[in-house]
Specification:
alpha+beta, four-stranded antiparallel sheet, 10 strands
């Protein structure tokens, strides 16, 4: 694998970027074409209902990532300015200290059956007494999941007391889903088991579906970030304090974790995975101790550098769904070079940690708005109809005068005698 360190990559034209990636054999001709060509509308019509067109997002490439001693180029699909640049900068700060190390992400999902109109504790005892027999009802040696080494392996129960004074017995089926995200598979397990539970307990299965709190798919990503690259010792200390604030203040924690998900979601989306499932898992996990908190931890090392740790569930797959049928998702997986769902989730976690560090560095230093608006100015200049060869000039001028808007871009264009392109 070639080095993911690509100085000046952002300065190249689109054609030059693709040519460079082909020259280092990260892309072949077919993959490059897949990235540029629109997805056939006939295929999109199969993905959703009432399709009337396409909705496109930029697909960029985050650089500088070393993850578990492997250089990785990371495709990210996002419309938000600064996200890919920030992730690349965070990765650069970690690169000199070996990059990111990751652990975890077992390929296991939970299916739930909720029983009501039942003596919950009696039903719990009945189910637990025959849990092995119930699992045997679900095992299907001829099924594709079990042929790949997956399948259900554990049954657990829990009694809940509802606010309407009813009791509810929750039955968890824990299954190894291999390299699938696994939602459809575990939903089918819940549907299969529910009638048997009803017959045994006399209860009524009211819900039969997966849990998106995918605690078995939790990933830990760690890295040491060079203090000087971040801006100095004070910046490193202030990032630690900012994380403490996020742990104390749920309002701040929501924004803090959104920054992490800026990175994770962009990777998940680029590979055709379910962003809503990943975000639901992350936010629920952040509140697992009774208060919504930061998903990260930071401290300053004896050498003065910043050490970070992110712990978050990331339920993704590399088989099934859009991951293999969407041509650009297939291209993104090819660029990543990942083969397993576990590895994809580990890469996504590393990107989330890099993104968070870069965002916190900007917040505690010059402020996020200065960084964000510098990049946003380019988008607004384009929106105003500034010719592409003058966009950067107008964007820089807007930032210098402290007013970033489409109308400001048009005023500057008029002052400089630049003809605005018609829509």
């Amino acid at each position: 694998m070639p080095t993911s360190r690509l100085p000046g990559f952002y300065k190249k034209s689109l054609d030059e970027r693709l040519e460079h990636l082909q020259s280092i054999e990260l892309l072949d001709d077919a993959t490059a074409k897949a990235l540029l060509n629109p997805v056939p509308i006939s295929l999109l019509d199969e993905f959703s209902e009432n399709v009337i067109g396409r909705f496109s997002l930029p697909l960029g490439l985050a650089t500088n990532f070393t993850i578990d001693e492997e250089d990785i180029f990371v495709p990210m699909a996002t419309e938000e300015s600064s996200v890919i640049a920030a992730a690349s900068h965070g990765a650069k700060a970690a690169r000199g200290h070996g990059g990111f190390t990751t652990t975890g992400a077992k390929p296991q999902m939970i299916a739930q059956v909720h029983l009501i109109d039942v003596d919950a504790y009696q039903a719990q005892a009945q189910i637990e007494a025959i849990s092995d027999e119930l699992l045997d009802l679900l095992h299907d040696p001829d099924g594709s999941m079990e042929k790949r080494g997956g399948g259900p392996h554990t049954l657990r129960t829990r009694v809940h007391h509802l606010s309407n004074e009813e009791e509810c017995l929750t039955v968890h089926i824990i299954a190894n889903v291999q390299d699938a995200m696994g939602a459809n598979y575990v939903n089918s397990l819940a549907e299969q088991l529910a009638p048997h539970l009803a017959e045994i307990t006399g209860g009524r299965p009211i819900l039969r579906i997966l849990s998106n709190l995918a605690t078995h798919r939790t990933v830990v990503a760690k890295a040491t970030f060079d203090a000087e690259t971040l801006g100095g010792a004070q910046i490193a200390h202030d990032i630690v304090t900012a994380n403490h604030i996020a742990n104390a203040d749920p309002h701040r924690a929501a924004t803090h974790n959104k920054g992490i998900l800026n990175g994770i979601t962009a990777v998940v989306l680029s590979t055709g995975n379910d962003t809503r499932a990943v975000e639901a898992a992350a936010h629920a996990y952040a509140a697992r101790k009774g208060q919504y908190r930061a998903l990260t931890e930071y401290h300053v090392t004896p050498e003065g550098d910043l050490q970070g740790r992110l712990e978050v569930p990331i339920p993704v797959g590399t088989v099934g769904g859009a991951t293999r049928s969407h041509p650009q998702a297939k291209a993104a997986l090819g660029i990543l070079g990942v083969k397993t769902a576990q590895r994809l989730s580990q890469v996504a976690a590393a990107v989330g940690l890099a993104q968070n560090v870069a965002a916190l560095r900007a917040l505690v230093a010059e402020g996020i708005q200065e960084v964000h608006m510098a990049l946003h100015a380019v988008n607004l200049a384009r929106e105003a109809g500034i010719p592409s060869e003058r966009v950067e000039e107008i964007a820089d001028a807007m930032v210098d005068m402290g007013t970033v808007s489409a109308s400001a871009a048009r005023r500057l264009a008029s002052q400089k005698g630049i003809d605005i392109e018609a829509d």
